[in-house]
Write a structure and sequence with these properties.
heterodimer, A: about 350 residues, mainly alpha, MetI-like fold, 13 helices, about 80% helix, about 0% strand, B: about 325 residues, alpha/beta, BPD_transp_1_N (chain A)
């Protein structure tokens, strides 16, 4: 019965995603080019050292490189080439890591970012919402007050500052945990217990700093929403009918979760910036760290490439969340019929 | 006269604030008989909703029952429901003995589950068989004029009037003896109001509910269904009377004012037109001395300012709290 409107809903979302994807890639194309500077400068200076300062050879190399990266063509042509190539999965060649392909550079670091951010975001979301709901259920008790005060303080701490504090105490002072990287220098990533344990040690601090700072906000939001829902008309009516408190709380929790899921989708997108700084602080080899390098060297193809992949994955996440939303909120799913 | 279903004895329910108390229900006594519809009327802020909270034992801080008792006949014998804990009230009274059709019935149903599921949850809460209760709900839906198939829908798929009927159907699913409706029709258009009243009376005729308390400021609505009327002013009952008597000859000056302020189809009403009561209801933190209506009363006497009139029976079936009538008697 519900499959047809659900299909329509999904189709509508998909078209919407396509349009936003095009808009986003356009912005990604324009923005790095708005930064002043010559992206080939570093590459050429490296070359000049190798070529023993032969000006003719360098000029020739510059022309070849310009043609290779397509920077000599008008912007519009560059843009069209970029979009069509990107659709075919060709993100071009990196300038600063010339002649390596962008895709070959980005793909290996993606798992590191996903492994760090996906669990961290989800754990923060789950823990925060659980704590917030608990506080609302026992409102005006010491549990509520404890959760609320801690959340308020914790949510205002910048995650990178927290990360630095962690590094100082657990890494430098106590020496319990390694201060940088995703695994010990000199080891090669492999599927052994030894490597897993080593990676886990490196993982704890960046993970914890993200989870702790994100959790408080979720908890506060959830608490407010559940308290509001518990005072709403349907909660009162259920109470008048002798509905068990636990059930009423479940209703309130369910209805409060809906806006939180939207929030989760937004934060899956928004956490990118957070990952960037966290990865820099911990010297963690994720996409954020790579993006940071690409930005400092004005590596156009790399910046574009990373953003194309990240935008695609964020939209995918949003799409999945939209789908979940349609599943759990009948008002969204059936509301499209009218 | 029928048997008593509920007895309220000198109840005083105050909103206890930090330094002051709002005396929203102040020394109210009356009975609710089996098989009757009582209309409670009065201006906003005269204690009507507090009275409904008192009757349903929905007493949450800062509201406090300062004095008085409430008894209800449960399984043939009277129990003091005013001494029950909130847990007991929830377990024994709500849904089973007393049901409340809330002021905003539009949003009263859990929005994100199907109504059938809601009924199942209700069955679980009351430790009843889910399937049986669902069958009962289907029957009840039919009785209030809704297709039982609607139970498989979400509340937001129903129109306002239909939702209201769905709320009544679900509110009366456990055959509660007393139904309290607090301004249930104020959000409905006239046609749906009419349908709502019809449904309410039908449920009573069928014996689903025994008695109904209908709280409203809309006299035109309540006169269509009420057997007796309670007129409240500033936390006190100023007049209790049968519908016919109060329509023929309202006794208390406030009742007269209230009835004169609405258009009803009686010829004498048409003749005299409508008028308003000057002034506003008093502050219930510090109500006027004597009769609380005296600052607004057109017949005010010296005694009204000093002493409080008692609610006395002046005619068979008519009680009024006014010195105009105690003098008549002496």
């Amino acid at each position: 019965m519900a499959s047809k409107p659900l299909f329509k809903f999904l189709l509508r979302r998909f078209i919407f995603l396509l349009v936003t994807y095009i808009v986003a890639t356009t912005i990604v194309f324009i923005l790095p080019r708005a930064i002043p500077g010559n992206p080939l400068a570093q590459l050429l200076s490296n070359l000049s050292r190798l070529a023993q300062a032969n000006p003719e050879a360098i000029r020739a190399a510059e022309r070849t490189l310009m043609a290779e990266f397509g920077i000599d063509k008008p912007l519009l042509v560059q843009y069209v080439t970029f979009v069509f190539k990107a659709l075919r999965g060709d993100l071009g060649t990196s300038i600063s890591f010339y002649p390596r392909k962008v895709i070959d550079l980005v793909v290996p670091v993606i798992p590191w970012t996903l492994v760090l951010l996906l669990p961290a975001t989800l754990v923060a979301w789950i823990l925060g919402n659980t704590l917030g709901a608990m506080a609302a259920y026992r409102r005006n008790t010491w549990i509520d007050k404890g959760v609320l005060t801690t959340s308020l303080i914790v949510s205002q701490i910048p995650y990178y500052w927290l990360g630095m504090i962690f590094i100082f105490f657990f890494g430098v002072r106590l020496g319990w945990l390694p201060t940088q990287g995703a695994y010990s220098l000199g080891t090669i990533p492999n599927l052994s217990w030894g490597f897993f344990l080593d990676a886990l040690k490196h993982y704890v601090m960046p993970f914890a700093s993200i989870v702790i700072s994100a959790m408080g906000g979720w908890a506060i939001g959830m608490r407010v929403m559940v308290v509001y829902e518990l005072g709403s008309d349907y909660s009162l009516f259920s109470e008048y009918l002798g509905m068990k408190d636990k059930r009423i709380f479940k209703y309130a929790f369910r209805n409060s979760l809906l806006p939180q899921i939207t929030g989760l989708a937004l934060s899956l997108g928004g956490i990118l910036g957070g990952a960037l700084i966290t990865e820099i602080v911990f010297n963690y080899p994720g996409t954020g760290f790579l993006l940071f390098k690409a930005l400092t060297t004005l590596d156009y193809p790399m910046i574009q490439g990373i953003f194309v992949i990240l935008i695609a994955s964020i939209y995918l996440a949003n799409f999945i969340v939209d789908f979940l939303y349609a599943l759990i909120d009948p008002r969204i799913r059936l509301g499209q019929e009218e | 006269m029928n048997e008593v279903l509920m007895r309220i004895e000198n109840a005083k329910a105050y909103y206890k604030l930090e330094k002051v108390s709002v005396r929203a229900v102040d020394g109210v006594s009356f009975e609710i008989f089996e098989d009757e519809v009582i209309g409670v009327v009065g201006e906003s802020g005269c204690g009507k909703t507090t009275l409904s909270n008192l009757i349903s034992m929905n007493i949450l801080k800062p509201l406090t029952l300062v004095e008085g008792k409430v008894f209800m006949k449960i399984d043939g014998k009277f129990e003091e429901i005013s001494s029950m804990s909130r847990e007991e009230v929830k377990k024994k009274l709500w849904g089973k003995e007393i049901t409340i059709v809330p002021q905003s019935a539009m949003n009263a149903l859990m929005p994100t589950i199907r109504m059938a599921k809601y009924v199942e949850h209700l069955a679980q809460s009351h430790e009843l068989n889910g399937k049986e209760l669902l069958q009962k709900a289907e029957k009840r839906f039919e009785e209030v004029g809704l297709n039982p198939l609607w139970l498989k829908r979400y509340p937001f798929e129903l129109s306002g009037g239909m939702r209201q009927r769905a709320v009544i159907a679900i509110a009366t699913i456990l055959n509660p003896k007393l139904l309290i409706a607090d301004e249930p029709t104020s959000a409905l258009d006239v046609v749906n109001q009419k349908v709502f009243l019809k449904v309410l009376m039908q449920l009573k005729r069928m014996g689903v509910v025994r008695s109904i308390i209908f709280i409203t400021h809309d006299i035109a609505t309540v006169r269509q269904i009420a057997d007796r009327i309670i007129v409240m002013y500033a936390g006190k009952i100023v007049e209790i009377s049968t519908m016919e008597k109060i329509l023929q000859r309202p006794l208390h000056p406030y009742t007269k004012g209230l009835f004169n302020s609405v258009l009803t189809p009686e010829p004498e009403v048409r003749r005299r037109g409508i008028s308003v009561i000057p002034g506003t209801p008093p502050n219930l933190i510090n109500p006027p001395s004597g009769c609380r209506f005296h600052p607004r009363c057109p017949h005010v006497m010296e005694v009204c300012k000093e002493r409080e009139p008692e609610l006395r029976e002046v005619e068979e079936g008519s009680k009024v709290a006014c010195f105009l009538y105690s003098e008549e008697r002496t």
